């Protein structure tokens, strides 16, 4: 093939074919090869490590005392009168309240909303059935993207406006709940 034929062939390919090229870059689905696997869209999943340890206590002591006394005495030569009134009040009271709780769990939740500042609103629940006992853990809250680790995990202590619920249903939960008549009597302080 001579140079003329080669040039003619190249010219016909370029002019006749109407060369067209598309970009491989798609802005909506692009992830850089060097980026980590963090949440970016509604519906994406994130793993929450629930580690909540709380304790609270309060105590109160009250002491009050009051003494009052009134006396009257009349001494006449022949007649003697005497009178006395005495009162005393004393109150002493005290109380103490203590409560502790601990929840350890790991569950995967979904992104419900991405806020204008970039925070992620997450929500999810996990249910586990063991020996006729159903344990349900629910997690809701707001997470900053920078608090999510490279392995797509966030600690529950890093969730803002966190609502973490741990509840059980079944034989053990029923045994721990007071009977209906005990709950009724407790309404009257009995």
Word description of this protein:
With 190 residues, this protein is of the alpha+beta class. The chain has a domain at 46-56 and 99-187. 15% of the residues lie in helices and 54% in strands. It is built from three helices and six strands, in the order αββββββαα. The protein has helices at residues 3-17, 171-176, 180-187; strands at 45-75, 80-114, 120-130, 133-143, 153-155, 160-170. It has a six-stranded mixed β-sheet with strand order 5-1-2-3-4-6. A hairpin with a 2-residue loop joins β3 (120-130) and β4 (133-143). The longest helix has 15 residues, at 3-17. It is elongated.
Keywords:
190 residues; alpha+beta; six-stranded mixed beta sheet
Summarize this structure briefly.
With 190 residues, this protein is of the alpha+beta class. It is built from three helices and six strands, in the order H-E-E-E-E-E-E-H-H.
Beta content: over 45%
User: Spans with pLDDT under 50 lasting ≥5 residues?
Assistant: none
Strand order of the largest sheet: 5-1-2-3-4-6
- Helix segment count? 3
What is the number of E strands? Answer: 6
Share of helix among residues?
10-25%
Largest sheet: 6 strands, mixed
Overall residue-averaged pLDDT value: 77
Global outline:
elongated
What gap, in angstroms, lies between the N and C termini?
A: 110 Å
Structural class: alpha+beta
User: C-alpha Rg, in Å?
Assistant: 39 Å
Q: Which H/E pattern describes the elements?
A: HEEEEEEHH
Secondary-structure blueprint:
Elements: H1 3-17, E1 45-75, E2 80-114, E3 120-130, E4 133-143, E5 153-155, E6 160-170, H2 171-176, H3 180-187
Parallel strand pairs: 1-5
Antiparallel strand pairs: 1-2, 2-3, 3-4, 4-6
